[in-house]
Amino acid sequence: MGDWLYLIIGIVVLGGALVAGLLTSGRRRRGAPGTGTDVIAPAPAERAAEAAAEAEPEATGGAPTTTLERPEGTASRLVRLRQRLAGSQGGLGRGLLALLSRDRLDEDTWEAIEDTLLTADVGVAPTTELVTNLRNRLRVDGKEAGDPRSVLRDELLRLVDPDMDRRLQVSGADGKPGVVLVVGVNGTGKTTTVGKLARILVAEDRSVVLGAADTFRAAAVDQLATWGERVGVEVVRGPEGSDPASVAFQAVQEATERGIDTVLVDTAGRLQNKAGLMDELGKVKRVIEKQAPVTEVLLVLDATTGQNGLVQARVFAEIVDVTGIVLTKLDGSAKGGIVVAVQRQLGVPVKLVGLGEGPDDLAPFDAGAFVDALLG
Questions:
Q1: Does residue 304 contact residue 342 with C-beta atoms inside 8 Å?
Q2: Nearest to 213 by CA among 194, 184, 236, 195
Q3: Which terminal CB of the chain, N or C, has fewer other CB atoms within 10 Å?
C-alpha cells in the first residue's frame, strides 16, 4: 500500500511541474544559444485575453484583466506639450521683452539682456550673436525694424535653427530593422526616454523590440521591462553584469528574424571611467552593425544641468556619432537656452523634448513652437 501511495504522490508532483512549465513558457523564451539573454513578452494566451477584454469587457465575468495601454497619438501629445512648455518657459521671453520694450535701450539695458540670456544657458557665443543682431535691428533701424516682439522672435528662431533635420531615423533598409542607440549619463532619464519613445512608435503602429543593454543596473533592466509590458513590446535582457553588446546583438537578431520595424537599445552611462565607456559603447555599436546599421544615435541630456550637460554631451560625442539630442526635464523655469547651446556645441539637432513625468510627456521638437513658447 505504501508503494502505491508514493507512486500516486510522485505522479501528482510531476503533473504540477509540467503545468507550471507550460504556463511560464509563454512569458519567457530563451535567446540564441550561448548568449544568456531572454526575450520577455506577454504570453499569447494573455494577449488574446487582453484583446477580448477590450472588445467585450463583460466576457471576463467581472474578473480584473490587465490590458495594454493605448499611447497618446503624436498630434494630441504635441498640442498638450506646447501648452505646458508655454506655461513653464515663458519667464525668459517675458524678461527679454520687458527689457526690449523700454523707452531707451541704453548700455545697462543691453547688459541686462546679456545676463538674462546667459542665465538661461544660451551660451556666450550665441548670446553675443543675438545681442549684436538685436542692437542692429532695434537701435540702428529703429521703427523700421518692427515691434520688439517680432524682432526678438525672428532672432531667437534664427538661433534655434528651424532648418535642421529633426526627423527620427527609425526605419532600416533591405529588410533590416531601424536601430536606435540611446546613450547618456545615468540619471538623465535615459531608460525612461527609451520607454516613452517606444510608446510613440507603437502609437504610430510600428512594431518595436527593446534591448536592455544597461546590464550593470538591474533597476534599469526591470524598468525597461515594465515599459515594454505596458505597451506590449518585447524586451531582450540578460543577466545582471552580462556583456551589453551580446544583449544588443540578440535584440537586433530577434527583430530581424521577426520583421520588426525598430529596435531601441538602452545603454549604460557611467562616466567614472571615460576609456571604459568608450570601449563599451564602441563595442555595442560594432556588434550591432554586424547585422544591421545603427540608424540613429540619440543622446539624452537633462536640460536643468546647464553647462554640466554640455560637458557630458562633448564626452559622448567623442565616443559615438551622435545624430540627435533628447532634452529631458525641459520644464525648468528659464533654462530653455540649453537648446541653442547644445546644438551649437555638437552641430546636431534637438529632436525630442520631455516636459514631465507622464508616460506620454515626450514629443518631437519644433523650433517655431519652442520659440513661441519662450515668448509666452
A1: no
A2: 236
A3: N
* Rounded Cα gap, residues 173 and 67, in angstroms: 33
The CATH superfamily holding the domain 74-160 is SRP54, nucleotide-binding domain (1.20.120.140)
CA 272, 276, 278, 283: dihedral to nearest 10 degrees? -140
Q: What pLDDT, in 10s, does the model give residues 186-232?
A: 888 899 999 999 999 998 999 999 999 988 888 888 999 999 998 89
Q: Report phi then psi at 180, rounded to 5.
A: -110, 115
| Dist. CA 121–CA 230, nearest whole Å | 36
Please tell me if the domain spanning 74-160 has the same topology as the one spanning 178-365: no
pLDDT digits (tens, 9 = 90+) for 163-177: 999 999 999 999 999
Interval 221-263: pLDDT, tens: 899 999 999 889 999 998 877 899 999 999 999 999 999 999 9
Give CATH for domain 178-365.
3.40.50.300
Nearest of 173, 119, 181 to residue 307 by alpha carbon: 119
Angle between helices 338-346 and 148-160 (to 10 degrees): 40
User: Roughly what angle, to the nearest 10 degrees, separates helices 124-134 and 338-346?
Assistant: 110
DSSP H or E segment with residue 178: strand 178-183
Closest CA to 358 of 21, 134, 77, 152: 77
3-state secondary structure of 297: strand
Asked if 295 and 178 count as a contact pair (C-beta separation under 8 A), the reply is: yes
Contacts with 243 (C-beta within 8 Å, 6 or more apart), sequence order: 215
- Where are the domains positioned within the chain? 74-160, 178-365
